[in-house]
Amino acid sequence: MAYVPLQHLIFWLIAIGLGRTAQGAASCPNGWIENPQSGTCIKLYDDKKSWQDARAVCQADGGDLVKILDASKNQFIWGKVSADRGEPYWIGLHDSKREGIFRWLDESNKVPYLNWGRGQPNNIDAQNHTNGQDCVEIGHSVITATKWNDMDCDNAAKFICERSITASCPPGWIESPQSGTCIKLYDDMKSWQDARAVCQADGGDLVKIVDDSMNQFIWEKVSADSGKTYWIGLHDRNREGKFEWLDETDVAQYTNWDSGQPNNLLGSSKQSNGQDCVEIGNSLSTPSKWNDMECDTPSKFICEKSPGGSSAKASCPPGWIESPQSGTCIKLYDDMKSWQDARAVCQADGGDLVKIVDDNMNQFIWEKVSADSGKTYWIGLHDRNREGKFEWLDETDVAQYTNWDSGQPNNLLGSSGQSNGQDCVEIGNSLSTPSKWNDMECDTPSKFICEKSPGGSSAKASCPPGWIESPQSGTCIKLYDDMKSWQDARAVCQADGGDLVKIVDDSMNQFIWEKVSADSGKTYWIGLHDRNREGKFEWLDETDVAQYTNWDSGQPNNLLGPAWQTNGQDCVEIGNSLSTPSKWNDMECDTPSKFICEKSPGGSPAKANCPNGWIESPGSGTCIKMSDDKKSWADARAACQADGGDLVKILDDSMNQ
């Protein structure tokens, strides 16, 4: 390439969001350091914990294990741990879901940067853990200290947490250095319930006190108020004697009871549940300690919220009750419906059939249905996708928690028309052990239980007419009989608010195959291709090589089509014309074929088209524009920013090419 003077360089514009914008008084809490590369806060912990326990600490502190997306951030992290010779630190990368497929904790499919040490990851089963080494560390235990190593998740190590930069507290609120949240004391005398309503209206909730240091901080604020107490967010209104915070379902880990408390003394005769709410203040025998009190008692109160806005959950709508275990809203329906029709009612009401996450939630649900003698209720568990593999409606993995009745699930066949047997699950009084579960034919009429988030719908929006839901991906699928090239098929999908289908695993491939299998001799375009890099097959929403493929024998073989198709077979099809019909084949992209589109239930997952004058970069999924104006680097950048982007960032060799 000929030499080009700097002042004559052509610059490029790319339509990506700028980095962190001005955040006013946003800053990291005490003990955290700002990472300028990511605009987040980092904290190193010297306590040695398993990867899971380390993550729990990070989450309790408002963040998660650190995510390292590029070399500059890796260098920043390394600069903080390098003095700690011989000690590794957990980071947020893992392959605990699919062996060898490493992902960050936010479940992003994109892992643009990896920094393995020599010979890593090697998945050595160092401690007889059958799953091997599924979690990742950085530090001096690796041969090259700045590099990464996979390690057994149960291994005790130091760890690094990351959280977003918090904005400053609004006027009238004070920051709690222990929790990084904003605190406000209210002098109005209110019941616990009314106090909570005030906090929620102000964008927060009653305060959660996490440790002795935070309790001391709170006490210093209320100690001058002689003889007064303040409501906090602890209560046992869901389970007598099991005190929990408003954002939790487990028993509180930290408490600070006064001598002889909690004693659950009954209030007036109408308060038959006794003292279910908790206060701190000067009227106690030890003023900084806590006391349980009748929730209707008027008292001052303390609210808490995140600096950036609300930390409170929205309340459940009328007719719904809050599940303290899941933080969701529950509603029982007396209408007798099939499992499918029951689910449709739940979705129309902004939710879905209930997901029961643990014994506590099962007990909560059971208490609601136990009075309904001889009746059962549909829940959201089923094995309609894979016989014997019971999963919840929002998942594709086998359910972690189940509560089967004795001898269940037994998959007894229903009527002759129900050849798949008992694929849906119920809870209720007609079972040998009433609080347990039973599998039942999905067409059986039964009562049912819906669940949704307090703020609105927790359910995926339903698919529009003509589309069918893929339970594996939670997306909507549509088969088109029109014969089109791969490019034209994609254009139809995008015009319909989606894109060519992405098949994520064997179960989804089987689901797709069942839809096309009756179409003898026909194939359907899917969203896989190697148009960007020969032999590197990727999905339309990714730039990395596809993790899951399902090639037919001898495929992909890249056979050339007509002479003008010099790149050969760059697009992928599934269908009946292959030697193994449910497998895949690469084919010339101009070949007319049927096709399968996919979109999210609520709208389009497809990327918007680039504006006029811009071209799409398949390597980054962004829009590129070349300008002939000659400018300095600073003026060129200003022009890019004025156009809604920035100077181009080149991510890899294929994008550079």
TrEMBL record:
PROSITE patterns registered for this protein in UniProt: C_TYPE_LECTIN_1, C_TYPE_LECTIN_2
Keyword line: Disulfide bond, Signal
Signal peptide segment: 1-24
CDD domains: CLECT (cd00037)
Keyword hit for Cell inner membrane: no
Pfam families xrefs: Lectin_C
Gene3D superfamilies the record matches: Mannose-Binding Protein A, subunit A
InterPro entries hit by this protein: C-type_lectin-like, C-type_lectin-like/link_sf, C-type_lectin/snaclec_domain, C-type_lectin_CS, CTDL_fold
Span of domain C-type lectin: 37-162, 178-304, 325-451, 472-598
Name this polypeptide is given: C-type lectin domain-containing protein
Organism expressing this protein natively: Elysia chlorotica (Eastern emerald elysia)
Organism phylogeny: Eukaryota, Metazoa, Spiralia, Lophotrochozoa, Mollusca
